Protein: tRNA (guanine-N(7)-)-methyltransferase
Amino acid sequence: MNTTIENNKDNQIEQIEKKVKIQKPKKADFRMHAHVNPLNETLFPYPLNYNQVDWSSHYPKKFGKDPLKLYLNTLEYPITYDDQVKPEYSESIVDFLDIGCGFGGLCFALSENYPDKYTFGMEIRGKVVNFVGEKIRALRDEGQAHDVSVIRTNTMRHLPQYFRKNSLEKIFICFPDPHFKKKNFRRRIVNPGLLSEYAYLLKPSGRIYCITDVEELHNWHVQHLEKHKMFKRVQDVEQDSAAKLIWNSTEEGQKVERNKGSKFIIVCEKV
Structure:
């Protein structure tokens, strides 16, 4: 009799746990400084090379793992890069990369509009990464967002340590810090050295998308992209569905829209 009662209690508890819905995080709980100096020393873990990146921890459903466990490389959701990863886990499946993804608006829009592609967001601010990661977990609990992930890292220092040559289809750089002072131009996420890295990682005919609300920064983007021998400018941008998404998917893009500001975009293709 007691055993039957205990079994019934266990079943009731199990049913209650299944019904508990993971709540989406609130942005107000994850605010922090808008900008971080990317030239500072990296004080959080990073892989020595792409063989140490375990993609099964970022896209667990594809690899038959727990989809609600988070690995974000933050204090709350740490990652270690001490050991070599199984070859089948270290082969990147990422198609789209959002550099400086912020609160993940574009990542989620890409996930919804390209369900057969895998999107990865990189962001240097730990609290912001936690917000995106916890939102991903809540959506996965509802059966969504299994094709999107995020990580805390410094793209300017460590990008080639995550991806192989010719592995990405698209790279997005949306409303980056303009670093107005001339002495800080070297902090800009678009510069000749970094463009060579982006070209190295993009597949042939892969595309890079840059959008900003600062015309001077847009002119900088145009100048350096058109000068780079590995890129050619795409003229029919209005035909590119991904270009349409970056217009209003990000938090910054929506803020510019509310303030009736201007937006400037350039899309280039790897040659």
